[in-house]
Each structure stands twice: as C-alpha cells, then as structure tokens.
C-alpha cells in the first residue's frame, strides 16, 4: 500500500462513523414521526365521534399543533438525508482515490465470517412452504478448475475498484476492503420495500402482494445476473472437508415407513438434511423467478455456486470454506459474476418441473383408511406430508379447495388499511411473501396480500376459512382474525390478523414450557378438525408474558380433516423440531 493509505483508511472509518450516527438520528426522527402520526389518528377518531362543536374545535386545534410538529420533524429528517448524501459523496471520493492493490491481491483476500452461534445442532434457516418450481435434475458442477484459471488470469497491475450491488435495502453498496467482512443476515423489520414517503397506499399494496424476494440480486447492464441466498448456519461441517451439496438432494432415498436416509453420507440427521434440501429449492425458485441462470447459497462459512438451464437441470459446486488456505471465496464469487456477464442466454421458466425428494417423516401411508369426515383434499395433503408430490399442477389443484363455503369479499380502500410508509415490513420471507404492519377497525394488524386469481390468493382464502373454523382459539393459540377482503379495486386479496408481539420459535432459547404450549396449541388446532399443513419453527411465535406462551400462524396450507394418523404425524414433526432446540 502507498504511504498515504493509512490516512485514507482512517478518513473512511471516520466518515463511516458519521454516516452511522446520521442513520441513528434518522431512525429516532422516524420514530417520533410515527408517534405523532398515531396521535393524529387518535385525534381524528375522537373528532369523528365527538358530538360537541366546541370540543371538536379544541381537538382540531390540537390536531393542527401535531401537524405542525410532524412538518417540523419531516424537515429535520430532510436535513439529515441531505447530510447523509453529503457524507456519501465524501466517502465515494475517498474510495475513488484509494489504492486497493491489484485485482489478484483482492481476489486472494481472506473472508472473515460472523461469530458462530454457541448453540449446538443449528440447522440452516429454511421455509417449509411449497415451491412453485423445483429442479428436474440436480448434478455436481465441476467448476474448480475454471475458478483457478480465472484467478491465474487476474490482472496484477495496481488499480482502483468500485462495485454496486442491488439488495433488499435501498442505496446498498458493497465496498471491497482490505479485509472482506460478511455481515450476518437480519430477519424481519423494514427491508426498504415501499419505504418511500411519497408512495401511495395502493402502490405499496401492489409491492407487498408481489413475489418473495431473494436476499441479494446482482444486476449487470440493468439485467438480473445472479441471486444470493444467505443462511444462518448448517451448510457444512465443522472441519475443513467441503460438502458436495448436490448429494443431499440426489442421495436422499427415504421411503415413508422404511426410514432409510442418504443423509448419513454427511453425518447429519434427516431434519438437518431436509432443511438443506429446502434451502436448495428456495434458491432454485428465486433463480427462476428472477430469470437468472446463476446463484450462490452460503452461511458465510460455506459457499456453493449454482447454475441452471431452461430444461430444469440444476448444477451445484462443491463447497468452498471461508477458512480454506489459500483463500478462494472472493475468486469464486468474482468468477461467477464474470460467468454471468459472459453468458448471453435467456433464462426463462423451465420446460419441466421436478419433485421434492422423499424425506422420512414417520408419516402414515397415503392410503390410510382411518378417516371419518375428511375433506376431499385430505388425500392431497397425505401426499404432501410424505413429501410425495410437488408439481405446480398438484399444488394448484390443492388450492382450489377453500375447505368451506364461498367467501364474500368486501373491497376496502388501500388508505383504510393504514400501511406504514417506513419500517412496515414484519417479514418478507417464505412462500406467502410480505407480512406488513397496518391498522384496520382502529387496531394494529398484520396484513398479507396477494393478487386475485393467483395461488397465493387461494392460500389466503384458505387461511381465512381456517381462522373462521378456529374462532374459539382466537387470542389463545392463534391470532384473532380482524378482517379480510379485497383492495385496490378488487385486484388484490388481503387478510388482517391480530398483531403479535413476539419472536419466531427458532430465534430464541426454547424452554419446556414453550414446547408444551406449542404442542397443546397444535392439538387444539387438530381438535377443530384442521391440519396446519406447514408446521415449522417460523410459523410459531413465542409471546412472552402471555399464557399460553405461543401462537400458531400461517394456515395457507391447512386442510379440513379429522384423520388421526395425519394429525399424529404433524405432532411428531413438531416434537422432532423441539428435540433439537429445547434447552
């Protein structure tokens, strides 16, 4: 490095600290604006109910004062945004003039992953939602020789580098530093979608009713090029030996009731293997939805390159360890960006759709005769429990049955749903898409949206039918159903449930009390003549200070049945989750 590089690094750190300080100030101002808006909403409700003209006049005076305060806070926020932009410009100038060495030197830097969790047996985070797209065939991608050739051809002249990465959060830049730090993925909270203060409520609804998003999407020449999916842990062993991840998919030869499992080749449990399979299917579906041919699956310690074609074939590289010597992670990622840039193929929907590998669940036979008043989609669900179907056609037919009478859907204006214009996203993961904050009938709610006529809209209507059947459990084991209908002139279906103040089951230390409450909750759901259909840690919330301490969420895959064997299989699945996380 040149002699002045140390001062440059110190200046950049100083500007970074100032930017972080400004971000914190903006956050505090936004919280103040939110509180003022809530007070204004409360005053408007009082004004509408107030019978006295004199009292209304006083209330309108208070409202005017709050409006002035809101305008003042927004002015402060605008000034902070200007300061943020100014600091961003200063940092860009410093980065532009900094000597970062040669391309080769950058590619062979060591990656520093985040501190590992102290909890044992952590599986990679994965949604158990059904997927619209699954690979027809999964193969090994022998790409290591190509990466080495790419590394050897790297330019060794000194130069300056800049790269921009499109991510969920707006204005995100990935800056290459002397030590490349991979940040932990944050869950929940605002992901920047619909956060523009000028966005209309109807425009926000259209955004929130869209498809789920990947963690990172790298764009080249204004076109999606590759997708990143970042997991917490569990995509590799503790040692230095890499995994050939495609074998998790291809070697899983379990048959329901026989208990054979190819996951033994990695020394992991079927639960762990199933989580990895779901991670693979999640990234593959995102690659299809984003119309790209390349992707990356990582938990920061283990890195896997993905490549697909339009025939439904998915290729996965052997894992690359962040701790490997010599370091190869940055060379691997740079090679993939290069490959995506050089590939002029058009990646559309695959011509074929595959099936989810069979995973032994101890589930009953598909031809169980222990059924009394099962709904017609019980047999479809039996196949789902044993993971024996996964084509989009069968999933579509499953969703045509709402499990009840036709629902009357009243249209509600998007403005009446009171969507938060900043910080409103509760969750943006999984098949259901966004879950966002709003207000309906004067109370805070969690809202889900889907365009009318889609599979996800059918899932929301199925969820409404399930909640109506479980009315006696509202506020006890499941959230209260506050409302449902259409919005945006009947183009979008929505469901509004009670806003739960808690955390997902997989994000906290779990006690026996929580385990007992969760099992009781699921049993109560079964007693209502329902199967949840998607039991997972992410669909159970821990609510501290309440009794019982859990709420079961997301009934988009539920079905009406009193089949005892199917209910038992679902409880066994839940208990298996707890066997790995209870402290």
TrEMBL record:
Span of domain Protein kinase: 421-583
Keywords assigned by UniProt, alphabetized: Coiled coil
PROSITE patterns, sorted: PROTEIN_KINASE_DOM (PS50011), PROTEIN_KINASE_TYR (PS00109)
Xref: Gene3D superfamilies: 1.10.287.1490, Transferase(Phosphotransferase) domain 1
Region (Disordered): 346-407
Coiled coil: 12-83
GO MF annotations in UniProt: ATP binding; protein kinase activity
Protein name: Protein kinase domain-containing protein
Organism, scientific name: Physcomitrium patens
